[in-house]
Amino acid sequence: EAQVTQNPRYLITVTGKKLTVTCSQNMNHEYMSWYRQDPGLGLRQIYYSMNVEVTDKGDVPEGYKVSRKEKRNFPLILESPSPNQTSLYFCASSLGLGQGTEAFFGQGTRLTVV
Amino acid sequence: RKEVEQDPGPFNVPEGATVAFNCTYSNSASQSFFWYRQDCRKEPKLLMSVYSSGNEDGRFTAQLNRASQYISLLIRDSKLSDSATYLCVVNKGTALIFGKGTTLSVSS
Fold first, then answer.
1. What local confidence, expressed as pLDDT, does residue B1 receive?
2. Could you report how far apart the first and last alpha carbons of chain A are, in Å?
3. Residue A108: which of B36, B43, B49 has the nearest Cβ?
4. Interval B45-60: pLDDT, tens
5. Using CB atoms within 10 A of its CB, is residue A14 exposed (0-12), middle (13-18) or buried (19+)?
6. Which of B43, B93, B97 sits opposite A105 (nearest CB)?
7. Residue B81 backbone dihedrals phi, psi, to 5 degrees
8. How do A31-38 and A19-25 pair as beta strands?
């Protein structure tokens, strides 16, 4: 089954404790990205990757890191989480961004930083 | 002007109604357009791509007006299961830009 898998689904952590949210896709997609979704702000892109070893900042990259060592994996790293990073996070992958290409999303990670 | 703007709603309609959502985008160079559906706090899923010639998928019709930078989604014969948030999405080259979504609630 084609899918994007994120883990964990739910996480409560304390300020400053490093964490990683994993994302894996089994569709051989080149393009992957991370979004956060907050009430009243919609989905905002954090980082994206056009291919292995190619990553770039989205609209809200501060406080986050990513890596793309393999095509299928695109982990999101919070080196020192803060309460303003409490949010719902989605990983997405697609063949590209052009007409007719579908972005597949993971089920989301609900992160709370206290 | 925001990159992608939608009327947030909510739209509350009875079953069987026809409802239309509108969306405007600011980047005239955008090349691809989509409508996604998101159920409460779940992941967004593609509803349909939007083509210049307009396209239809069952009860759903999408239209694109490049001159006005305007996208629409028409839902005919609304079902209870259509209740969701509908996201207008535009490709800006390196990213998909999402509108904040329009909430639809269909009641019996």
1. 66
2. 36
3. B43
4. 999 999 888 899 999 9
5. exposed
6. B43
7. -70, -10
8. unpaired
